[in-house]
Write a structure and sequence with these properties.
single chain; 96 residues; mainly alpha; 3 helices; two-stranded antiparallel sheet
Amino acid sequence: MPSDERQEHDAALWSPIDSHEWYAARNAVSSLRRVLVAVGMERDFPFLRADMNAFGYGFIDLGRISPETAERLAELLRLGIAAVRSPSAEDEGEPT
């Protein structure tokens, strides 16, 4: 087996930044950060980051947040749920 092929399969050379899970976690953080910027909450999540655990699973660390930030986030989630559940004018057959 050529040395290049052996290195690809060598667990000692594995890097988390070479994995799909790492990129999925990083992309999720980017998406969340864009939304937080849009609602003016980017400074409320100073510890937001993508990470991986020892088993190679990606996860998002929201970090510590203030009680006020948690309340605001909860309200935004409530509003989002209400918007998804409320029928739109098109669903009710009203003219647009």
